[in-house]
Amino acid sequence: MDLATLPGNPLLRLGRLLDETEAAALFHQLITETRWNDGSYTAAGRRFQLPRLQAWHADEGIDYRYADNLHNSHAWTPTLLALREKVCAASAHDFNAVLLNLYRNGLDAVGWHADDEPDLGPAPVIASLSLGATRHFAIRRRPAGEARRIRLPAGTLLVMDASFQQAWEHAIPAEPEVAAPRLNLTFRKVLRR
């Protein structure tokens, strides 16, 4: 599989990792076998509800936190291990963890952010696999540049190469017209403490 660099952004590569049939089968399998958290987190002493569900799988001893919230870590399932091998081969990078995000419909979203937590090191590479409903991935230069939207159909692998997180922000904007769920898996290399 060849990943093409996106015009206008040499730090993003995009390609099809799975065909439609493979993507649909994997989507249904992961929806069924994943132990989703309740989507809540605490910040500044207050409890908030995420507009999506999440699950975190990693090598033994790998923890991950963002916004001072520690994810409950689960061991790799056989399905996720096989998928990690494919993603590592396609991206030419090794990953020791994956964050699964389930956007239940177009109202579930994630706002502008960069995956620049210290646990990921100074220039992380993140590989993002989309399954289920087609949604848009929005990017903009930091700080608050003009936004660009990239359409991500099921089976698409998007790789954010080193330095992307320092120069760009990204988001999955709400799309109320989308009724079907989307599953996104972001493969990461978390530093051991």
Structure described in brief:
The chain has 193 residues and is of the alpha+beta class. The protein is 17% helix and 40% strand.
Task: Describe the 3D structure.
With 193 residues, the protein is of the alpha+beta class. Helix content is 17%, strand content 40%. The protein contains three helices and 16 strands. The chain has helices spanning 20-33, 78-91, 164-167, and strands spanning 4-6, 9-16, 40-43, 46-49, 53-58, 65-66, 69-70, 73-74, 97-103, 110-113, 126-132, 135-141, 148-152, 156-160, 168-172, 182-188. An eight-stranded mixed sheet has the order 1-2-14-11-16-9-5-8. Strands 10-15-12-13 form a four-stranded antiparallel sheet. The chain has a two-stranded antiparallel sheet with strand order 3-4.
What's the structural blueprint in terms of helices and strands?
Layout: E1 4-6, E2 9-16, H1 20-33, E3 40-43, E4 46-49, E5 53-58, E6 65-66, E7 69-70, E8 73-74, H2 78-91, E9 97-103, E10 110-113, E11 126-132, E12 135-141, E13 148-152, E14 156-160, H3 164-167, E15 168-172, E16 182-188
Based on the model shown, name its key terms.
193 residues, alpha+beta, Jelly Rolls, 4-stranded antiparallel beta sheet, 3 helices, globular
Specify the structural class. Answer: alpha+beta
Number of domains: 1
Portion in beta strands: 35-45%
The total count of strands amounts to 16
Which percent bin holds the helix content? 10-25%
Shape: globular
Query: What is the assembly state of the chains in this entry?
Result: single chain
Order of helices and strands: EEHEEEEEEHEEEEEEHEE
Number of helices: 3
